[in-house]
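Internal tracking record. Fields below are filled automatically when a chain is submitted to the structure queue. Please do not edit lines marked as system-generated. If the sequence contains nonstandard residues, flag them in the REMARKS field before resubmitting.
Queue: standard
Priority: normal
Entity type: single polypeptide chain
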Amino acid sequence: TADRPWAYRDAPDLVVFGRAALIRGADPKEVLDRVYGSARQKEPQHPDAWIASAELALDKGDYELAARTCREALEKIPDHPDLHYLLARAYAPSEPALSRASLEKALEINPRHIPSLLALAERAIDAEDYDRAATLLGKVRSINPYHQEAWAFEAVLAELHNDPAGVQTALEMARKTWAANPRVPWLLGRKLSEKYRFEEGARWQREALKLDASFLPARLQLAQDLLRLGQEDEGWRLAGEAHQADGYSVLALNLVNLRDVLRGFTEVTNEHFIVRMAPREAAVYGRRALALLERARQDLAARYGVALSEPVLVEIFPDQKDFAVRTFGMPENHGFLGVCFGRVITANSPVSRPGHAFNWESMLWHEFAHVVTLELTRHRMPRWLSEGISVYEERQADPTWGERMDPDYREMILGGELTPIGQLSAAFLSPRSEKHLQFAYYESSLVVEYLVEQFGFDTLRRILVDLAQGREINAALEARTRPLAELEPAFEAWARTRAEALGPQLDWEKPTALLPGQPPDETTWQLWEKTRPNNVHVLRRQARRLIEAGEWAGARKVLERLLQWFPNDHGPGSAWRQLALCCRQLGDPEGERRAWETLLALDDEAPDACLRLMELGTEAGDWELVRRAAERHLAINPMIPAPHRYLARAAEELGDARTAVEAWRALLALGPDNPALAHYRLAVQLHRLGEPEARRHVLAALEDAPRFQAALNLLWEIHRAEASAPTTPSPPGS
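SYSTEM-GENERATED OUTPUT FOLLOWS
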C-alpha cells in the first residue's frame, strides 16, 4: 500500500508507489525527489522512473526540469519513444524546432506511437488544418478504437465545425471506458480556450470539476479562463486555491505572484474602459492611453456595427515577465507586445523592452480592433483573419502604423513565399524566423485589404457575421467572394503587383547571386558599380562607405539618387536618416529638416527623428512642428521628460492651455530637475483655464523656492481674481 514505502524495492514498484502517493495528496516535490529520484538511482536503465519524473514536471509546468530529465534519460535509453515524446512536450513552449525534431524521432522509432500521433493532431488543430487532424485521429482510433483523448480531440473538431451532435457522439465514445474521467472535458475546454472561446472553455472546465473537484489542471484552466473573461474575483480565488493545494505548480505560483503585482497597480477609467497600470506610468500617460482607446472605440465599433455593453479591461505591464504570466501563464514572452482575449487586453508598457522601441499607441489600436472583431464573430474566427484585420485597421488609422511593404516583404512575395489563404493561420504557428512571423501578419493584412478593395467593406463584415453563425472561414469566403481556387491566385497576382510597385526603377538583385554561398568580394562590388548603377544594394553600400569616410557631399548625392527611386524607404536603415546626417554635417538645416520630416511621415518608430525635429522646430520657432514631433515621440516612449517638455513649450506658444497642462502634469510625475518651475508653469496654464487647482501648484512652487518672484506675482494675481469674482448668495435658511 501507499503508506508502506519500505515494501517497494525496485524502480517499477517505486513508480507505482509514487503515483499512488500523489493520488492520496502527497507533496509532488517530495515524490519527485525522494521516490522517483530513488527509483532512477536504483535502476537508471529502467524507463519508468524517468518517464514518471518528466510527466510530473510537465504536469506542474516545470518545462526546464522536464527537458533536463528527458535529456539525461535519453543518454541511457536513447530509443524509447515516450522519452522523445515527453522531450517534445518540454521543448514546445520555448523551442518549437527542437520540439518538432523530438516528435519526429519518437515516430521514427515507433510510427504507431499514440501520444506522438495525438501531439501531431493537436498541432494540426492549432494550425487550423482540421482535415489533417481528422486523419491523424483516425490513425489513432485504428490502433485503439476507445482511446479517450482521441475522442476528446474529435469533440474539439466537432465544436470547431459547429456540430453539436458530433460533439455528443465523440463524448459518448470517450466515456465508454471511464465515464468520470475529468481529462476529457478538461482537454476539450482547453482547446476551445486556445481558440479564444473562453466562455465555452470555462463551461467544460466546470464539467471536469463536477467529475473530480480536486482535478488541478481544470481548476487552473478555469482560473485563467475567468481572468481572461474579466471575472477576476472567482478567477483569482481559484488560482489561490490551486496554489494552496499544490505548492509545486509553477503556473499556480506564477498567478499568485502576479496577483500581488496587480495589487500595486492603479486604474484610469471612464464608462467604457478600465486601464490598469503601474502608478507612475498612469500619472504620465494614463489619460493619453484612455483617450486613444476611446477614439478607437468610436471609430471601430461604429464601422463594424458592434455594441460593447461592458467596459473593456486593459492591463499594461512595465515588466515583460508579468505580462507573459498574465497572458500565457508562464514568464516566457515570444515577442508579443499585446494580446486581446475579448473584453480583456494585456500589453507591454513602453518601458518593458529597453533598447527596442515600439509604438504603443498603434499596438493598443491593434488590440482594440481584436475586441471588436472577436465580439462580432463570437470569438469564432481564424487567427489570420483576426490579425489581418487588426493590422489593416492600424494602417487605416495612421498610414505610418502597422506592417507595410518593405524590401524584405517585396523579396518574399516575389520569391514565392506567400502562403495560400486557406492555410494562412498555419504561418503563425511555426515560422522559420521572426521576419517570417511578421510577414504572416503583413500577408494577412494584405488579404483583408484585397477583400475590401475588390468586394467592399460590407462584404468583410458579412464574412464576420457568417463566422459568428458557425460557418467555416473558407465557406464564408467562397459564399461572399469567389471560389478559393480562383481567389488565391487572384490575390497572389494582386500582391505581386503591390510588391513590384516598390522602387520599380531600382535593380533589387543581391550581388551574392554571382557567388553562391559567399559574400561578394571587392572585385564583384566594383563590377556591379560599373554595370548596375541603379542597384539598391550598390547604392546603399556606396552611401555607407562615403559616410564612413566623412565625404558628406558625395554621400548626399548617392542618397538623393536612391531616394528619388525609393522615396518611401523607412525603418532603422532608412536612407532618409542617413541623408539627414549628411545635411547636418554640411550645415544645411533646411535639408536636414526635410529629411527628418519625410522619415517621420513614413516611420512610426523613429524617436531620433522626433527628438531632432523638436530641436530644429524650437530653433526656428515652428511650434506646430515641435508639437507634432513631441506627440509622435510620446507614442513611442512617454516615460522620458524631453517630449513632454517640448510639448509643454509648444502648447504654451500656441495658446493651447489644456495640452500644456497635461504636459506639465506628466513632467511633474516624472520628477523634473526644477520642480518649482514646473509647478509654476502648470499653475500659469491652470489659471488661464480658470481652474482653482492653480493656487495649489503655485504654492508648491513657492514651497520649493520661497523667493520665486514670478510665482509670488502669480499667487497675488490668483488672489485678486478670487477676491473680485462674484459670489453666489446663500439660499434662505442655510
